[in-house]
Amino acid sequence: MDMIFVVLIGAVAAVLANRNIAVFNDGLRPIVSEHIEGKLSRRELGLTAFAMSFGLVIGFGIPFTLSASIILIHSILLGTDIIGILAPKNRWGTAVAALIGGVYGWGLLAGLEGFVKLFDYLPVNFLEPMGQVGDPVVVTFMAFPALAVALQFSVKKGILTFAAAALMRQLAVFVNEGEYISIGGNAVAINQEGMALIVGMIFLFAYAMKQKPDGDSSIDLASVFSEKVKEIKKNVGFFMVIGALIAGATNMLLMAGDPISLNLLADGNQTDAGIAAAARAIGFIPLVASTAIATGVYSPVGFTLIFVIGLFSPNVWIAVVLGALIIFLEVTLLNYIARFLDKYPGVRDSGENIRSAMTKLLEVALLIGGANASNAIAPGFGFFFIAGFYLLNEAAGRPIVRMAVGPVGAIAVGVIANILVAFGIMSIPQ
């Protein structure tokens, strides 16, 4: 059943990309729109998709998938973006895209199981230390609303947001340690990072909703791009299918929508993962909605609420039904969301700032996590390698995105450590 879900997700996502209906890479959506309008050839689109997504699959999606033995959605959907767009846009091309997309999904899941077993035969099994890559991410995630506020409004307001979030976190720790909340005589622990995140998001949206349109600066997105919205609505059936599949796979703990919830799932914290996924989804609604409305190209995961549905549903079949329903509602409400974003331009603009804040936070957290994992694999050498790897990557113009330096570096240290042990140059770390 696991394999059926993953294969179908790969096949359907590749078809959506092939038919120019939906792509996962946010930056690719406007480029697909250029191709639809005849401004970009299919070959140029394919090369662009490969250049934009291949590095993220290898350097971002796959390392996280390996570190937690849970598929990070980026590793499958960025790959199906490439597969679908490189295949010709005709009847045979669509069938080929579906076939290769399904095989790719199968290979990802089957290969994952093989990789996990392979680590047991290595002199230095670095799979467990790889889990440390994501440890700082969970703790530092609560800071992203403060950074988004600082980027969009002012550093002063960002500091105020950060202070309020930090205070809430410590209050939650105090309440948990004192066991002040109980149900039926049993102490209930509240998630301190989750509470801090909620406070930060409240500050962010409170500031954003205070920002009003300046005179005639507001643009009626729904009316300007009505034809593009109609095109998205026409394909709502496709979105419901893939939404149902991804929600079901998430409920089965086969995949996660982001590194934060993935690491929480790896630690067995499904409720906390759902809260983190919800916060991310709320923050990404302005970005996904505005790019979809402007380009006529949707995301196969919609507003990412399907991951929240999957994590909080009691079983896989309820997740499947609700996943299809939530995607249907998202597409149906696109016009209303567009009008809301026009009414509150601060909320519309917050989408890009939230994305930037998350990216910056993940760059720092994953570098720290990668350094810690590398040092656990090869004490001393690990810190040295990550520092050198980061600096040389910067000097070379960042051929590897900063976010991927930590995870890729940790994998490289694991490979090097095994080679050194095999040649007797290094002893097996205790």
Automatic annotation (TrEMBL):
Tell me if Repeat is a UniProt keyword of this record: no
What Pfam families does the record tag this protein with?
A: YhfT
The cross-references to InterPro entries, in alphabetical order and at most eight, read: Uncharacterised_YhfT
Q: Which UniProt keywords apply?
A: Membrane, Transmembrane, Transmembrane helix
Top-level lineage group: Bacteria
Q: Which residues cross the membrane?
A: 49-80, 92-112, 132-151, 236-257, 277-309, 316-338, 364-392, 404-428
- Name under which the protein is recorded: Transport system permease protein
Q: Which organism is it from?
A: Lentibacillus halodurans
> What high-level taxonomic lineage is stated for the organism?
Bacteria, Bacillati, Bacillota, Bacilli, Bacillales
